[in-house]
Design brief:
Low-confidence stretches: none
Shape: globular
CATH superfamily: MFS general substrate transporter like domains
Helix content: over 70%
Structural class: mainly alpha
Length: 388
């Protein structure tokens, strides 16, 4: 039962991270906002996630998994339902704030349980990759479901269906038996973790990675619509919307495949830094191609990007946990909080640049993050583990 809660938690996280990108094409005209303000909604969500990641990490170490998991499922469902009813920019900001707390509760529960319960805790990076296949599943289901529902029912009903889906795992949470926790941990202890070299380097690596992933999750659908509408001007607006949304689903499926393949590599925890560096190099090449390519290549590039993105986050987490096996909730909270700074800044910057240019050209802002991730991944492999 605890495995079901862990996997459903990362599934819910995937839903949260693809939510705005999935509904953005309908949300922007509904709220009467441009790409810049849509980027602001993404930043609000990401900044709240940053703060909530610290809080949820410490809460898991203090009060345990069950209450944090229940909170995560319930508050996420309420936030999505509120977002389905809002018709002004301010009415969308408040659900985005609450969504960050729900997402980080599910994130911390799922990503700290998975390395402990899969593969008997013996190969943390492989376990994290396997578990985070369900993150990709959430990323995949969300745009696919709303793309279908938008053609069958109203915006309100389509988005409300997502709220119901994310609430269902609460039933399993009540009956699950979770691992024991260290009740003596506190916020000050969590912040002090940044003195550990492996925690600091992992945090900076996630800063680069989340800059990339959050940008793809939120701008891939608008990018797809933009290049498809340009290259196929006879296509209807609704068809272009659907094609853009489906591209995010293609990306998510490829990400799941990448993580599933990585989970079968027995030595991935030991050599994880080289897998991350290689994936970051591929991502950089794909992004460069996306800034130059036509609509004919968009699906193929989305597949390549998803395959390369797949192993990065779980492998960073798994390598970090293997080198720092104590207080996993707070370790995860601190590295994810630092990582989310990238998600706050970079997608917003893409939106601002796209207003005077295009989403396609704005993607070049992601290339420096790829280079930095390569360097940090190599350093992560060389730094020593927990002191004392």
């Amino acid at each position: 039962m605890v495995a079901a809660v862990a996997l459903m938690s990362v599934f819910g996280l995937g839903m949260c991270f693809s939510l705005l990108g999935s509904i953005g094409l309908k949300l922007m005209p509904r709220l009467n906002i441009d790409q810049g303000k849509f980027g602001s909604l993404i930043s609000v969500f990401m900044f709240t996630c940053l703060l909530a990641s610290l809080v949820m990490g410490v809460l898991v170490d203090k009060i345990g998994y069950k209450p944090v998991a229940i909170f995560g499922f319930v508050i996420t469902a309420c936030s999505i339902f509120a977002l389905s009813r809002g018709k002004t920019f301010i009415a969308a900001v408040i659900p985005c704030l609450l969504l960050g707390f729900g997402a980080m509760a599910m994130n911390t529960v799922g990503n700290t349980l998975i390395p402990q319960i899969l593969y008997e805790g013996q190969n943390q990076a492989a376990a994290s990759n396997m578990g985070n296949v369900f993150f990709g599943l959430g990323l995949f289901v969300t745009p696919l479901l709303v793309s279908f529902l938008f053609r069958k029912t109203t915006y309100e009903n389509a988005v409300s269906a997502l709220a119901i889906l994310v609430l269902l795992p609460v039933v399993f949470t009540f009956f699950a038996k979770f691992p024991d926790i260290d009740a003596g941990f506190a916020i000050a202890d969590a912040v002090a973790l940044l003195k550990e070299p492996v925690v600091l380097v992992a945090a900076l690596a996630l800063f680069c990675y989340i800059s990339l992933e959050s940008s793809f999750c939120n701008w891939l659908a608008p990018y797809g619509k933009e290049v498809i509408s340009r290259d196929f001007p006879s296509m209807s607006a609704d068809a272009a919307d659907a094609a853009g949304q489906q591209m995010l689903s293609v990306f998510a499926v490829a990400m799941m495949a990448g993580r599933l393949l990585a989970s079968q590599i027995g030595m991935i925890t030991v050599h994880g830094s080289w897998f991350i560096a290689g994936a970051a190099a591929i991502i950089g090449l794909v992004i460069f191609a996306m800034t130059k390519g036509s609509a004919l290549w968009t699906s193929a590039l989305a597949v390549c990007a998803g395959m390369a993105f797949g192993p990065c986050f779980p492998t960073v987490v798994g390598v970090t946990f293997s080198k720092h096996p104590a207080n996993l909730g707070s370790v995860f909270g601190i590295i994810f909080a630092v990582g989310l700074l990238g998600g706050v800044v970079v997608p917003k910057a893409i939106g601002n640049m796209a207003k005077g240019s295009s989403v396609q050209k704005s993607l070049k802002l992601l290339l420096p993050a790829c280079v930095l991730l390569i360097v940090l991944a190599i350093i992560l492999g060389k730094v020593k583990g927990m002191v004392g």
